[in-house]
Each structure stands twice: as C-alpha cells, then as structure tokens.
DNA sequence: GAACGGTATTATGAATTCAAAATCAAGACA
DNA sequence: TGTCTTGATTTTGAATTCATAATACCGTTC
C-alpha cells in the first residue's frame, strides 16, 4: 500500500536542503541565499524559512540574526564529539538489541554480513560501506527504542558530510571486518555487554579513518576563511 | 557583561510555549490553537508556526497535516526509552568527565554535594532535586562535549513533565544519596568506568520512582481518550 | 431520536507584503 | 592610495493576505 502522506511542504524542503548539504552543493560555512533556493524549489520563503529553523535545531545550519542561515562548519572537535556520542548510542543499541532481537532478525543481519564480506573480498569500497551501514541500522532497529534511533539518525546526518580518506588501508579494513565477525558472534550469543563494547570501539575506529586532515581545527567566527575549491 | 542578544522571535516564542507545556498549562494531547497563543504572546502566526515546527523536531509537539499541532503525549514506553538513552549519555559523561575535570571543578561539585546532603537531612525535597540536577549538569559540562550536552538537554526537556510519585520513600532517597557519595568518590579517583556505571544505574532508580502509573500505556491516535483529572 | 448531508464558519498552509537591518557601491576626504 | 561617509539596493524578519482543508452547525430524512 502506497503511503499517500500529505507531508508539510517545509519537510520536503528540509529534505532537499539536507541533500544539497550532504552532497556538498551547499558548502560548509556558505551563506544560504533564501531567494536562490526558493526559486530553485519553486516555493515561497515561508516553508524554506521554516525548514531552515528546523535544520538549525538539528545542527545542520546556523542562523545568525538578521544575517541569514549558513551551513554549519564541521570542526575536528565537533566530529569527535559527535562520534563519541554515537558510539555511546551504538553501545546502548547493542545491549538492547540482544534483549529484543528475534532469530529471524539475526539471520537477516547474518545475510547482510555475508554480502558485506563478499564486497570486502572484492575490495568494493562503496558497496561495502552501504551494507555496513545497513547492518548498523538493523541493530539500532532491533533495539526497539524510537528515541535512540531518532538521536542516532540526527547525529548520523550531521557527520554524513565527512568523507573518508584514502587511509582506509587494508589493515584498518581487516580490523573492521573482524569487529563485524565478533558482532555477529555476540548477537547470536545475545551477549549484550560484549556487543555493546564492540560497537563502541568499532565506531572509534571509523573516526581514525575519517579524513579530518583538511578540516579546520577550531571554530572561526570570521566571514569566509576558505573559499574552497569551486572549479 | 549583559548578553544583549537579538534572538529571533521564534526562539522567544518557542521558549514560552515550552514553559506552558512544562507547567502543564498546555496539557498532553491538547490541540494547540495558533490563534489563541498568538493573541496571548502578541505576535503573528509566522513566528509561532516556526516555533512549533522546531518544537516538533524536538519531540515536544506533533504536527498533524492540516490539523495543527498538539502537545506530545508521554507514554510509558516513550519515557522508558528516553531514560535509557539519557542513562547512556550520562554514562558517557561520567567517563569523559573523569578524563577532563579539574580539581577546582571537583571541589565545586563537592560543595554542591554537601549542600544537597543538607537538604536531604532536612527532608527538603524541592531544593534537593534542584541541587541534584545541578550536580548532574556539572558533570555533563565537565565532559566538555557540546553534542552530548545538547542531546541530553533535549531529552531532559522531553521528560520534564514527568512528575515523581509518592514512592520517593526514605529508602529510595537514601539509596540515591548513597549513589551520589559513590559518584564523588569515583570523580576524585577519576575512575571513569566506575562513575559511568554509577550514573547509568542511578538513572534507572529514578525511573522507578517516576509516577508512570497514571500514564497511558500505549499510543492512541484518537482524539482525546482521557480527559484527565482537571478538577 | 439518531444518522446522514449540505452549508457556514473557522483554522491551517503557504504566498505575498511591508518594515527594518545589513550589504553594496560610489564619492568625499585625508 | 586607502579609509570613511552616505545613499541605493538587497536581504532578512515578521505581519498580512488568500486559498484550501477541516470542523461545526443545522436541517432533513428514516
């Protein structure tokens, strides 16, 4: 059955702006022109402004009084803080998942795991990441905690812009896969504490791989320090 | 120095609506009349509607397409889920705080602790809760993680409406104070794992004292199932 | 008396309008 | 040449307006 959901316009607009930010069309620190986006989306300023305010509460944009909205600039510290919290949430999801998960759900995750292993063997980075992400989402879903899921999705959205560097060496990759093997094992044993611990440390690994090199170290209140490469 | 901050109107409005919800002036499940609130605040519908949309993303209200906003109704499950996540966040704050906290900050918390003990001895419930809350806030602040603090504040706001039952017996209270004694000890030893564990379980106790009895068990999509006791 | 239908009223969603602040662009001046 | 005014233009913030969906009211029918 199709979900004929009359979502409010501001939600649609917010989704599209999120996409633009995620794809880097709207660069970090860039001032968001309401006029331009309205024309692009074919809507008036009202729903766009509502969307921007919601996104400000989500941490994706910042609103400067009388000076409009700009895309939040990621800093090393912000990303680190976000990953720390995400790790704690993933840890909780592991504990809860082991309490609630069904055999069928474990089997489904097992299948995803096998698919992921295949991508690993073929060294297909993008498909690997995609399936990897799905596994984590399944575990979060199995935790059966809406609030947890909501918080995790929010944080996940914020750091989606972080691109992973070429430092994804065989060594890191191998270790990540080993973590996943251990996760499956903990899941099958329904060992919540174990799964929690693995998930916490697993995500920490991801941070090490993230390319924070190019990212600015600390907050800058100034205008447009780096005009970035736009060609 | 006074912070002469020209905050946007929608933020002011949101704060005031949050107060109304927290104080129960706007009851759970109650439909929010834009007109009435606008007149009350002396603003147009634009900033109010922006505020409501932000609050929807904060989980305080729900927006039904073409049917306006209503105050989110707390359910037993929602509260439990929220507490679980808060516990995880508090646990993380304990670990991080032990890494970062200074002797001065510990001393300040120690002083708050002593004040709290005095309120405990005098059986002054409200002052006790207030200082108690301050201690937790100090630990969160000491963790030096903006994202953590933001998430925690958000969740905290959602369950502020939960009232504590008369089950706050001497026994529970004594146990809570003992937890706090242990916290101080862990802080001084800078034993992050220990402090984390205490904080997690501490919150579980709080959940037991929460008066969830009167609260509806599951979500109801209908109009106004329980008109609640208003006399 | 209860259920159904149709109209009037009200409330919401989104576009438009208007006032005020910020930005931009010249031109004056050191 | 570079900095500071001053006025024009643009952009933002918030009120207002307009179209549409939901609700309330009321008469009809069974």
Automatic annotation (TrEMBL), chains A, B:
Gene3D superfamilies on file: GntR ligand-binding domain-like, Winged helix-like DNA-binding domain superfamily/Winged helix DNA-binding domain
Keyword set, alphabetical order: DNA-binding, Transcription, Transcription regulation
InterPro entries: GntR_C, TF_FadR/GntR_C, Tscrpt_reg_HTH_GntR, WH-like_DNA-bd_sf, WH_DNA-bd_sf
Span of domain HTH gntR-type: 7-74
UniProt keyword DNA-binding present: yes
One example GO MF annotation: DNA-binding transcription factor activity
Domain of life: Bacteria
Protein name per Swiss-Prot or TrEMBL: GntR family transcriptional regulator
């Amino acid at each position: 059955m199709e979900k004929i959901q009359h979502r409010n316009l501001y939600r649609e607009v917010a989704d599209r702006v999120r996409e633009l930010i995620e794809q880097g069309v709207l660069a970090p620190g860039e001032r968001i022109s309401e006029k331009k986006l309205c024309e692009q989306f074919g809507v008036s300023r009202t729903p766009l402004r509502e969307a921007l305010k919601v996104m400000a509460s989500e941490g994706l944009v910042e609103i400067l009084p009388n000076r409009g909205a700009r895309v939040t600039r990621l800093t090393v510290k912000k990303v680190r803080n976000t990953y720390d919290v995400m790790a704690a949430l993933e840890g909780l999801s592991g504990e809860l998942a082991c309490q609630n998960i069904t055999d069928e759900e474990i089997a489904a995750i097992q299948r995803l795991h096998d698919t992921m292993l295949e991508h690993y063997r073929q060294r297909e980075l993008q498909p690997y990441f995609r399936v990897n992400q799905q596994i984590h989402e399944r575990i979060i879903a199995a935790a059966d905690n809406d609030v947890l899921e909501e918080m995790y999705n929010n944080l996940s959205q914020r750091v989606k812009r972080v691109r992973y560097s070429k430092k994804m060496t065989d060594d890191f990759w191998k270790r990540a896969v080993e973590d996943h093997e251990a996760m499956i094992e903990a899941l099958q044993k329904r060992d919540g504490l174990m799964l929690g611990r693995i998930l916490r440390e697993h995500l920490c690994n991801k941070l090490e791989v993230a390319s924070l090199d190019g990212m600015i170290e600390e907050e800058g209140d100034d205008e447009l320090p780096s005009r970035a490469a736009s060609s």
